[in-house]
Each structure stands twice: as C-alpha cells, then as structure tokens.
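INFO batch 0412 | record 1 of 1 | parsing
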Amino acid sequence: MLRVSAKATNTTIDIQGISGDASAAAQGIEYGPELMRFAESLARRNEPDLTAARKDLLEAAGPGVLVDAAGVAANFQRMVRIADSTGIPVDNLDNPLSQQIRADLGLDTFSSARNSLAITATSS
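INFO prediction complete | emitting tokens
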C-alpha cells in the first residue's frame, strides 16, 4: 500500500522504513521516524518505548496525527487478527512483486510466514 500511494503521489520513499530503519522512514514521509517508532513500539507491545514514542509523535506532529496513527494501528491490528483467526494465507506468493517485497523486507524470515509458505508448498 505504501509503494502504491507513493507512486500515485510521485513521492520517493525507502520501503525499509517499515522495517525499523529510521533514516529510511524519514525519506518522503512527514514525521516518518516518529511514526515508525510509534508503530514499532506498539507492535512489540513495549510499554515504556510506546509511552516515549507517543510523546515524541505528539510533540513533533500534534494531537491530530497521533490520533490518526493510533486509529490506523488499531485498524491493522483488527484486520490481522481476523485474517489470522480465519487462516487466510497471503495471496499468490509466486507473484514477482510479492516476491520482491518479501525479499526486500525479509518477511519470509518471520515465524508467521511459515503458515503461508506451507500452504503454497502443499498446493503446488
């Protein structure tokens, strides 16, 4: 989604920004490092880091951006839980774009990737 929206707005981004690279997060995304730190600490459920990240994002971007970021994070949590609970695998792992993004971000190294990779292997 980030790549598509960046292309649609002619914005240069570095996709590594969603993998914890603060300098990459700063490229083309307003408040990118603060948003990345907020999202990372939320996903890791690290309360002390989340408290600090929330404060930093509020100071840098204001309450509107903080509320929007929290809403987006909550929505993604909801979607992931629904997908995980129903066993929805990643679509078409043979797609070249999917393969490139997974390689760029190292997504196949996550333990949860084995679920989609196993489904793909048995259906081949």
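INFO post-check: The CA atoms of residues 58 and 65 lie 8 Å apart.
INFO record closed
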